[in-house]
Specification:
This protein is mostly helical. It contains ten helices and no strands.
Length: about 230
């Protein structure tokens, strides 16, 4: 998995924490520290930060063994750290992330505003398919649609479904979801991550519109050629 793909995948993990509690506070700190590491630090610093954040998420998971949120963040950080691992080790990390997300969905499907569905769906369309890994475009779409049913106005759910559609050359559909991500309300506690993801959505929207218009131009040119 290349850096651009992993980085884009990591941007989705910025779901707001609603209720104040020791668990939500711990998750919020991990989330905020990840955002600082990703947006403000170098890859060399990230390579050091991600395993430490992963250990923190595991510690929270041990403290709250029945909670879905620590599992989601362990999966996020395993995927983040995979960027710095050898290929075979990275694939094992992504398999472990998949299992954690599946467990989180069984435990609490709507945890972190459906982030497990967004995360798992994104993994399914970004990782290679069989026999290398578990990638599956149809499964990805099912999961991303489920995330949207949980959080239809979320920045991450709309952005990553749009990104999936863009990867499938469904440009006009992608425009709809990138536009929704740009218009989605930002969250004060996750302002850095939300604004960055909306910036990415704006760039992706421009790309989708360009590809859509280019496709129309080619069609009109072909039509004109055959109807002179």
């Amino acid at each position: 998995m290349n850096k651009t793909t992993v980085v884009a995948f990591l941007l989705l993990f910025n779901s707001g924490i609603v209720a104040a509690s020791p668990l939500s506070d711990s998750i919020s700190r991990i989330e905020s520290d990840w955002a600082i590491s990703y947006y403000l630090k170098t890859p060399e610093q990230q390579k050091t930060d991600y395993p430490l954040l992963l250990q923190r998420a595991r510690t929270v998971g041990q403290r709250y063994p029945h909670a879905a949120e620590p599992r989601i963040w362990q999966a996020i950080l395993l995927s983040a750290n995979a960027e710095f691992e050898p290929a075979l080790t990275a694939l094992k990390s992504l398999d472990a992330a998949k299992s954690l997300l599946e467990d989180a969905i069984k435990t609490q499907p709507d945890a972190l505003e459906g982030a497990a569905y967004v995360t798992l769906g994104t993994l399914y369309y970004m990782v290679p398919g069989w026999p290398i890994s578990f990638g599956d475009k149809d499964k990805a779409e099912q999961l991303l649609k489920k995330a949207l049913s949980i959080n239809p106005n979320g920045i991450d759910a709309n952005y990553f479904y749009g990104d999936y559609l863009l990867s499938q050359d469904k440009f006009s559909d992608a425009v709809k979801y990138f536009t929704a991500a740009i218009k989605a309300p930002t969250r004060k506690e996750q302002m850095l991550a939300d604004l960055q993801l909306q910036k990415n959505a704006s760039m992706a929207l421009a790309k989708a519109q360009h590809n859509m218009n280019e496709g129309k131009s080619k069609f009109l040119s072909l039509f004109s050629t055959h109807n002179y």
